[in-house]
Each structure stands twice: as structure tokens, then as C-alpha cells.
Amino acid sequence: MKNVEDPVRRRFLAAGLAGTSAGLLSSCVSAAEIAGKHEREPAAAAKIRYAELLPHEFRARLAACPIAYVPLGTLEWHGEHLPLGADAIQSEGLMVECAIRFGGVVMPPIYLGPDRATPAENGAMLVGMDYAGSTTPHRKLEGSCYWIPLGLHLQMVDAILEQIKRAGFRAVFADGHGPSRQSWVENIPEREARYGMRLFGVGEDIRKQWKSQIDHAALNETSLMLHLRPDLVDISRLPQSRAESPQGVGGKDPRDATAAQGKQWFNESVELVGRMFAQAGLI
User: Fold this and answer.
1) pLDDT band at residue 28 under the 50/70/90 scheme
2) What pLDDT is recorded for position 31?
3) By C-alpha distance, which of 249, 169, 179, 171 is closest to 215?
4) Alpha-carbon distance 250 to 196, whole Å?
């Protein structure tokens, strides 16, 4: 993937897309309304997932705020204690909250994505956490069923963006699975020029502050899952002895995870999205 860094082109894109933001997204919820809206509209009452909307509901949400959210998920090993769809559950959960607070519609999660891959001695293909330092011995971890080549992933996301634009959206926020996040962010400048939409992701400007999905099935993701879907988390599946490290986990010990910490990180990340939209003039 080529990361477009031409400063002249960036200034041109910024100028052109700023007009798009002001003209087409001015009806999104204002920053001053965010806190009150969050209090008035609990998640259970909100209907913001694309697949659940009736046509008149879709028209209303699109007219109110034409922002689409794309959860970049997988079906991937996330330790013995988390569900295989943890990437999509976390990213969709965050985007549902963003749509409630700021407006917009949440697209169905993408469950396919790129990742590093290498052939094993027995001829099998190892992918992602299959050959991480915490996986001993290196092996196919049960349940991982998501890998596609980077080129195919780029084509798939391009096709989705084409349809999102066709549906009438004017801005897109995407995030989730690490390699998918990286691909998305690296290609934002070129895609903004090609599709004429504002595109947002977890780039260098907010990466150090971002607190959602910043490890693999470790303290961060486990805490987030305890906040979002505690019914799908089983810490008892992890080794009881701290001398034994969990398999296929990358980051701080998930056995220290708490729902309270997950809630804090979740809200900090949602607020970052809001500030990013506000700085772009979308809310």
C-alpha cells in the first residue's frame, strides 16, 4: 500500500473536503448537545444499525447526520477466555455508542481482514497470533477464520465505500482489528480524493490517546469485553497460576481486567471520536 504524503495534495484535499463537511454534515448533532443526547437516548432504545432500519428510519437518520461507521472485525482466536468475534463486538459496540451520541448509522461488521502469514514446517499456513511469541509452540489456533490477502481486503473495502457513497453517506469512521486499522488509515488520503467523502480512523494524531483494541485479548480487550459483553467472557478458562502465561495473548495480563477499567477506556475512545468530528466541523 502506498501512503500518500504529498503535502500539496493534502492541503488541496483538506480545503475541498472542508466544504463538504460544512455543507453536507451541518445537521449532525452539535458538540453542545452531545452530553444531553447521551442522557436522553439509552443504547437499548436507539435503533442505529443499518440492517435493522426500515426505509423511513434510514432516510431520517441519513438526513440528520450522514456518517457511516464500519466495524473492522475478524473471527479470530482471542485467548481461551474471549469469543472469536471479539474484534467486531468491541468495534461495533464503540460505534453504536458514537452513533447514539453524535448521529449516523452503524454498518454490519466486516469479519474478514489481512494479517501477517507464514508457512509452517508441516505446510500449514500460520496467521497472526498463530506464531506470536505468546503462542508456544507455534500452531494454528482454534477458531481463527478471517484471513484474506491484503489486496483482496483493499478491494473489498473499496467496494463497501462505493456502496456507502451510493447510499448517500458523506463521512465514514472505521476501526477495529489491528492490521485492518493500519490498512484503513494508510489509505485514507487516496480514498478521500477518490470517493469525495470524509474518512476517519485511528491515525497518528490520536493513536497515543486511543484506548480501544490496543492489545490482543490482554488487559485492554478483556476489560472492554467485560464492559460490553460480560456474558461472553470466561476468565476461569485462563491459567490459575500467574507463573503460566495465557496462550496467544499479546499485552498485559488479562487476569487483571475489570469492567470498570473497560468502561473508562471505552468512554475515553468515544470522546476522542467526538473531538475528531468536532475538529472537522461535523458536529
Assistant:
1) confident
2) 43
3) 249
4) 37
d(CA 182, CA 178): 6
Contact of 161 with 195, CB cutoff 8 Å? yes
Q: Which grid cell sits at 7?
A: 503535502
Separation between Cα atoms, residue 58 and residue 50, nearest integer Å: 7
Taking only the tens place, the pLDDT of each residue in 85-112 is 999 999 999 999 999 999 999 999 999 9
Task: Tell me how crowded residue 201 is: count the other CB atoms within 10 A of its CB.
Answer: 23
According to the model, what pLDDT value does residue 20 have?
46
Q: What is the enclosing helix (H) or strand (E) of 33?
A: none
C-alpha cell at 50: 443499518
pLDDT over 90 at 171, yes or no: yes
Q: For residue 23, is pLDDT > 90?
A: no
Cα 252 to chain centroid, rounded: 21
Instruction: Give 125-193 as a DSSP string.
Output: EEEGGGGSTTSSS----TT---B--HHHHHHHHHHHHHHHHHHT--EEEEEESHHHHHHHHHTHHHHHH
> Alpha carbon of 133 to those of 53, 128, 216, 223, 249: distances in Å?
44, 11, 12, 22, 9
User: Where does 7-279 sit in CATH, by number?
Assistant: 3.40.50.10310
Q: How does the average pLDDT of the chain come out, rounded?
A: 89
Cell of 193: 480524493
